[in-house]
Write a structure and sequence with these properties.
Structural class: alpha+beta
Radius of gyration: 18 Å
Shape: globular
Order of helices and strands: HEHHEHEEEEHHEEEEEHEE
Number of strands: 13
CATH class: Mainly Beta
Distance between the termini: 20 Å
Number of domains: 1
Number of helices: 7
Length: 281
């Protein structure tokens, strides 16, 4: 699977790239079996480690957020089958992500299964990178539909080109991103970015097995699940090599937080943030 020049230009203009039928029917069934098994084994625990902040700081109302989706983070750390699945897919997923972002090496920041249960709440407009423990204009995620994602069951929505707005604000704010919590009000992000009030939005329904790559500073969200069925997706959040710790906990344990030094510590440990793809020179 390879990208065209047009694909790359479109991604950099719009902040996202959709690949229909990214997984073959056989691969889709494999992903569903492995991911759903890992989610079941994790039971009610969002994270592997009890010292990670379970009251996720990205939200403003835990009761509301818990009914946005079932979220199980870093399944690769608890299930060897998930780890092998992601690393074996890395030659494709990582290569695409690296080419879209024009970087030579890309690592896993974390993975997460995101399952909108029947009648789950919508996911408010947000951008990802302000939540993470590093800051980069080249962070990128892949969102793989394990079920059909429809207008009725909570497909993704994007604000095409909004990554250029957040990037301009980043440079104007001394290379920082403003963190916008995910709460009940879908439009909270417009308080920080009022210039987006008239911005066009696009719904992104996807068939199971299709994939969406989107920039870490693209504004996106998802609809409510208005059906009695689940809508499942598997995502991988990725970062360039040698990212520097910015002081935020996100998925880090309390032990890691005591060991890392803001502005000094580098995320380049293959055991903690495995390489998905590295360009050969």
């Amino acid at each position: 699977m390879s990208l065209t020049t047009s694909d790359i230009i479109s991604y950099r203009e719009n902040g996202y790239h959709i690949i229909p039928n990214f997984l073959s029917p056989f691969q889709l069934e494999q992903w569903r079996t492995i991911i759903f098994g890992a989610v079941h084994d994790r039971a009610e625990k969002k994270y592997k480690f009890p010292t990670v902040n379970e009251d996720d700081h990205t939200n403003t109302d835990l009761d509301y957020y818990d009914n946005v989706f079932t979220q199980r983070v870093n399944l690769w750390q608890t299930h060897e089958s998930v780890k092998q699945l992601l690393l074996e897919s890395g030659s494709v997923i990582g290569k695409i992500a690296a080419e879209l972002e024009n970087i030579d090496c890309i690592r896993i920041w974390h993975d997460q299964a995101l399952i909108k249960e029947p009648f789950a709440n919508p996911t408010a407009w947000h951008l990802d990178i302000p939540y993470w423990s590093f800051t980069s204009l080249h962070a990128i995620s892949v969102w793989i539909a394990l079920d059909d994602a429809t207008l009725e069951n909570g497909c993704m929505y994007f604000m095409p080109g909004s990554h250029k707005v957040t990037e301009r604000r980043y440079y104007a704010s001394n290379n920082t991103f403003t963190e916008i919590k995910i709460g009940k009000n879908l439009s909270d992000i417009l308080i920080t970015y009022p210039e987006l009030k008239q911005w066009p939005t696009i719904a992104v329904p996807m068939k199971a097995g299709s994939a969406s790559f989107h920039s870490g500073h693209l504004i996106h969200g998802a609809g409510a699940n208005m059906t009695s069925g689940r809508r499942a997706a598997m995502t991988i959040q990725m970062m360039p090599d040698n990212m520097i710790f910015n002081g935020k906990q996100n998925i880090l344990t309390k032990k890691q937080m005591t060991e890392l030094k803001v502005g000094v510590s580098v995320f380049n440990d293959d055991n903690i943030n495995p390489i998905l793809y590295k360009k050969l020179r």
